[in-house]
Write a structure and sequence with these properties.
This protein has 384 residues and is of the alpha/beta class. The protein is 43% helix and 13% strand. The strands form 2 sheets. Strands 7-6-8-9-10-11 form a 6-stranded mixed sheet, with helices on both faces. A 5-stranded parallel sheet has the order 2-1-3-4-5, with helices on both faces.
Length: 384
């Protein structure tokens, strides 16, 4: 099988970079809010890092990049059926990927059934067992840790039912333990890096940052650590604090934490990054009550998911400025293509979607990130 690159070639990158650089020049710098030593000179202590961040952000903001995923592979197998076992369909990311699988299955001529695990370990195990009992050609592990269903994974492996994960393990690609044909996701290092680079670029390298995370989730904790590592590459970016709030408690704890942060840091708090967009939905009432403007500081970016509510906040400039969204529908199509490769005895494609940044300026009012070209490419591969 030919190898496929994991990064898109940016069409018109020079034009985009010029536009982004111009827009960044007009932004209020974090230094003007909290650092008089750099505000006077207009310089930062990390010019090389800042230049690199601006270039990366320009590429990630592009919306017209050509498809650089798979362009060849096996023709469509016929008469296949899939089961998508969902962690919970109330999670917009899980539901969005499921919708993509359903759309792609229709295009390739397969059947697909979604079983909702309803968010509990017992419910997910029951849903997985139901999926195995249906004896499908393949099963999708939709947004949950396969270790929580180790018995069901073993049963599926013993029955030679290929398993493909969506955000099932930390890294994209095949997995030996647990045994997955592949795992479809963006790369956590890429997402962490580009969200941090956006803060560095947008602030001119002089931000005061709060990081929101859930340290009880290893994947989220890793993402937060990678974010802080990238922020630390710019000496004039200050990490004010890390707000550790379990996602399950976000609605109750985030407003109180935000009120405390406003009191503690005031105008020094100019930017935030969260491992999931939902924190900013919960933060908005407290920011509003604290007198902050929806389109002003702290400027907030979500390092993951990019659900419809995040796009709504971004487009309406309501306490979220950007997100690094998953291309959920595209990932659903990739899952179906990966199953087709598994059925043909071919290896996984190795494709990893590149990171994208969505803002009010480049999202054109839409509620999801849906790149161009993948539907046509996969249909061509499948002969459909």
């Amino acid at each position: 099988m030919p190898s496929h690159p994991t990064r898109r070639k940016t069409v018109g990158a020079v034009v985009v970079l010029a536009a982004v650089t111009a827009s960044l020049t007009g932004c209020v710098r974090g230094s003007q809010m909290h650092d008089s030593t750099t505000a006077g000179s207009g310089r930062t202590g990390c010019p090389a890092v800042l230049a690199k961040a601006k270039k990366a952000v320009a590429a990630a903001l592009a919306t017209d990049a050509a498809w650089d995923g798979p362009t060849d592979g096996p023709r469509a197998a016929s008469g296949k059926s899939l089961v998508y076992v969902a962690n919970t369909m109330t999670n917009p990311g899980v539901a969005g990927a499921a919708k993509g699988v359903q759309e792609a299955a229709k295009a390739i001529g397969w059947k697909v059934r979604v079983i909702d695990g309803q968010g509990s370990p017992a419910g997910i195990q029951k849903a997985f067992s139901q999926a195995i009992a249906l004896d499908p050609a393949g099963i999708v592990i939709g947004g949950f840790d396969p270790k929580s269903t180790s018995e069901q994974v073993r049963q599926a492996n013993d029955a030679n039912i290929p398993l493909i994960g969506w955000h099932a393990v930390d890294a994209p690609g095949p997995s030996d333990n647990p045994k997955l044909f592949t795992n479809v996701t963006t790369n956590v290092e890429d997402v962490a890096r580009i969200s941090s680079d956006w803060i560095i670029a947008q602030s001119g390298g002089t931000a005061g940052v709060v990081v929101f995370t859930d340290a009880s989730i290893p994947f989220a904790d890793l993402k937060a650590k990678l974010i802080k590592k990238e922020l630390a590459t710019c000496s004039d970016v200050r990490l004010l604090t890390t707000a550790n709030i379990p996602i399950s408690d976000s609605s109750s704890r985030t407003p109180t934490e935000v009120t405390s942060l406003l009191s503690r840091y005031g105008s020094r708090w100019t930017y935030s990054v969260a491992i999931n967009d939902l924190y900013f939905g919960d933060a908005a009432p407290a920011l509003r009550s604290g007198g902050q403007q929806g389109g002003g500081a702290p400027y907030n970016i979500g390092a993951g998911d990019g659900d419809a509510s995040a796009f709504q906040r971004i487009n309406q400039k309501q306490y979220q400025a950007a997100t690094v969204p998953e291309p959920l529908t595209e990932q659903g199509w990739q899952i179906v293509d990966e199953f087709n490769r598994a059925f043909a005895g071919d290896p996984a494609s190795g494709y990893v979607p590149p990171p994208h940044i969505a803002t009010a300026a480049n999202s054109a009012g839409v509620a999801a990130w849906d790149p161009k070209g993948y539907r046509e490419a996969y249909r061509e591969i499948w002969g459909k």
